[in-house]
Write a structure and sequence with these properties.
heterodimer; A: mainly alpha; two-stranded antiparallel ribbon; 10 helices; 2 strands; B: mainly alpha; globular
Chain lengths: 234, 181
């Protein structure tokens, strides 16, 4: 699903004005435990849709068919092990509350995680500290691994074809994050850091980073994690 | 190459995260049964990372698995951590002793993976015996060990075929982080 070109440009410019990449990244990382520990399936679904929308507005497009198919398959398979209250019957087959909840929870966790990493990661992300840099690279890799469908060269499926397709994706994703790392090293900020022999931004840089975030951006990065943690107790 | 700046460890950690999520989404008839998909990056790392970085990757894998399955604050975390570290240690030992030899290696991916799966199950059975089920553990032990062998062999066959064919694996030099194995 893609936004029209004009709308995508406007959303992109709004995001770059309202948010500093590093602060948005930190906020999404903060949301991660609250998302993964959420037990209520409806809340989990709402959070997944929220991050899907955030990724759509930030990037101008997201892939919806794969998550939809995955949700259907995972939930369908989960229903094969019925447990809990019987909600309905399809022929002789019972649809049970426990199996439905388990299947939906699993699929929302997987899809939501992908949307969250798509919201958090941007090519110009440069968070402070070694841990920040490590997490940024890890999420960039997760984003690269899940950003496109794995393509099969031929129609007839074989084991070697599967290996080649997975390998092609790994090569492309690894080159992508290696190139991003090279750009980061070539940037003025990175060069300045190397010159002074420090691995994280100076305090003045941190303060200017915090000041540069707009009030709308601050409202988002404070309220969204707070709401997600509060929803853990629903 | 410097471990702090190279994207290899974060890349493997992202693979662990992704494969943990995929494994979590696959329904299993019994919750304790595991396919071990997230072990693939750990196996790929055997020849590529020095022991310290390898252990760090295993720690990240445990965190990914427990966060994705939502069991980080439960006893399942202890089981997952014990199993993963025992498995990683067993795989490393088998690799160092039998597979890292340049001439006529005595073990391949299947042996390494099966050793890892059995060590994982042994650590979990040990914890189950002394902290959870007591003597009743012997009833689930055969099922767990047989399933461990099956998934270990299957994963080993896939890893062997993948490593033999993969351009990505070939592009990363062995022991590239400080040269240590």
């Amino acid at each position: 699903m893609k936004l029209p070109a004009g709308a995508a440009r406007q959303c992109g410019s709004f995001f770059s004005r309202a948010f500093k990449n590093e602060i948005l990244f930190a906020a999404v990382i903060l949301c991660f435990p609250a998302f993964l520990l959420q037990k209520n399936v409806l809340v989990l679904m709402a959070e997944t849709i929220f991050f899907c929308a955030a990724a759509l507005f930030r990037r101008g497009g997201v892939r919806l068919l794969t998550p939809a198919l995955m949700t259907l398959c995972v939930t369908g398979f989960a229903l094969l092990s019925p447990f809990g209250k019987v909600l309905a019957h399809i022929g002789e087959f019972p649809i049970t509350q426990g199996a439905l909840d388990a299947g939906l929870r699993r699929s929302f966790v997987v899809c939501g995680m992908v949307f969250m990493s798509q919201t958090a990661v941007s090519p110009r992300l440069n968070p402070p500290g070694k841990a920040g840099a490590f997490l940024a690279r890890m999420f960039a890799a997760l984003d690269a691994l899940t950003s496109e469908k794995i393509k099969f060269a031929a129609r007839r499926f074989s084991f070697t074809m599967l290996i080649d397709a997975v390998d092609a994706r790994l090569v492309a994703s690894y080159e992508k994050i290696s190139a991003a790392k090279g750009e980061e090293h070539g940037s003025a900020v990175a060069r300045e850091r190397m010159d002074v022999g420090v691995s994280s931004p100076k305090r003045a840089d941190m303060v200017s980073l915090l000041m540069a975030q707009s009030p709308i951006g601050w409202a988002f990065v404070v309220l969204v994690p707070a709401a997600m943690y509060a929803l853990l107790f629903v | 190459m410097d471990a702090k700046n190279d994207p290899f460890i974060p890349f493997l950690a992202a693979m662990c995260f992704f494969l943990s999520a995929v494994e979590y989404a696959i329904p299993k008839p019994i919750p304790i049964l595991r396919i071990g998909l997230a072990n693939l990056p750990v196996m790929l790392a055997l020849s590529k990372l020095r022991f310290r970085d390898y252990t760090f990757l295993v720690f990240l894998k445990v965190m990914a698995q427990t966060f994705v399955s939502g069991t980080v604050f439960s006893y399942v975390f202890a089981f997952s951590a014990a199993g993963s570290f025992a498995s990683a240690l067993a795989m490393r030992c088998v690799y160092q002793l039998f597979a890292a030899r340049k001439q006529k290696p005595l073990a391949g991916c299947v042996g390494i993976s099966t050793a890892g799966a059995l060590a994982n199950n042994a650590a979990q059975l040990f914890l189950a015996r002394y902290f959870l089920f007591g003597a009743g553990t012997r009833f689930i032990a055969p099922l767990l060990l047989i399933s461990g062998c099956v998934t270990g062999i299957a994963l080993g066959i896939f890893a062997q075929a993948f490593m033999a064919r993969s351009k990505w694996v070939a592009s990363i030099p062995d022991g590239n982080f400080g040269g240590g194995r």
